[in-house]
Amino acid sequence: MNPEVGANSHKKSMTRKEAHLVHALRYLTQGLRAPGARGMNRNQRGAVQDFHHHHRELLHSEGVVGVGVARKRQGNSLTPQLSLRFYVRRKGDNIKDMVSVPRYLFPPQGDRIVTDVVEVGDIRLNAGRLSEMRPAQPGVSVGINFVAGTLGCFVKKKNSSPVYLLSNAHVIARDGVATPGQTPVYQPAKVDQFGTQPFAELEEIVPFKFSSTQFNNTMDAAIARVHNETDCNNHILHVGQVIGVDEPTRETPVQKVGRTTGLTHGVIEDIHFQWQFTYEKDQHGDVGRVGFRDQVLINRINASAPPFSAKGDSGALVLDQNMHAIGLLFAGSSQVSVCNPLPAVLNRLNLELA
Hints:
Radius of gyration: 20 Å
Oligomer: single chain
Structural class: mainly beta
Number of strands: 22
């Protein structure tokens, strides 16, 4: 274990053009709940509300998976131009009732913005390095009951000594409705090896905020306290020791080791991706929509490369090529993958790498 490796991340500054697109994204998805809207005058607030209501049919159409800010695509290549990008399941039936995405949108402040439409398939939660491993390493199977995902890394609370494993709430906390202190976490997951013994106990969950229209969540994360620290090795399987934590940036080559697909490589295309998915709301099985904002969307390195992730890779740590951890993987499709920015996860739970 290396307690001296911590979150040494720093925020990357946005260009004026990117900031303009991000503000438009916020107005589109959040309306008057967008940051900064509260301080506007009456006319400005009215313009934001009109923009939000006029275009919300685009955002909430059945064929639209999410929206973000990324370089505009032309065929299989990325152009230099930043755009407001709509992610759809399939081109051609992307917008309900055949309403198409306009070439330009005109936000309430600033110049017109260019749009883009990119097909990504159905993005789903990715909930094996499949056998028992002692000491366990990030990249191997973990889970509860009949759910299997990936051990992301080992962490500690700042200025504290117990060691925890970090993964997704949908992997080790039943979509966030499991009870901390009463939920054993297994390595490997029970579905991967019958008779496996508890490796850790669920400790803390980042709760979800449910809404069918809002994007109020930034992470799918939970930690579990390991029973025996000598059973932990924070060197990621196949790739080695993480040397720090950093903010994700567009066009950064990345890698991950997951339970299902092992070591794969990709490239970040969007760091403002927003989308919704259905999670359990309570232990009775009721479900609700959870909207995420400021997520990291990763594409395969080229058209012939395998997908960056698959079902069972949820919880994997995403790294740049310099072994800086930048994300916590939690969802994907056959074409793209989605992760939470790791600095936000560590800050929310007051964690540092162990």
